[in-house]
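Residues and backbone
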Amino acid sequence: MKNDYSSVLNGQLSHWYFWPPVGELASLPLIELNNIPGLWNRWFARTDHRIKITDLSLSSDSLLAAIQMAESGVGVLLAPFPLVTALVSTGRLVPLFRPSLPIDRPDFHLLYRKAHANSAAIRALKRWLSEVTAGLERRARAANV
């Protein structure tokens, strides 16, 4: 499954920011995902190449922790949109812009031993993961951001 990344902000705080212009977004506290370094720089490069981020003092090694940081109002996060649609639909997170940053690799990887590739358990897990990711993608499209 490939995701578009969206900048998301705490729903309670979103009325303070009034959907900032891209340049002003750079002045907000931005949460960096340590396992995808440079994500904000890539987003700004695609949105407005003149903007350079120099200070990313907020970071997390865990996507779940980063989502919780954004949800509690600590900062703005570039999150894989299908994974935050439930929080967006309840207003706990608000996307500042349309999801727009696809990364060039899948977000999920299933690893198993070659010897088990054709086992019933691995086939069932692949089927289940396909259903889950398809459901996430449907929810993201239904959110119609």
User: Anything to note?
Assistant: The first strand starts at residue 4 and ends at 10. The radius of gyration is 17 Å.
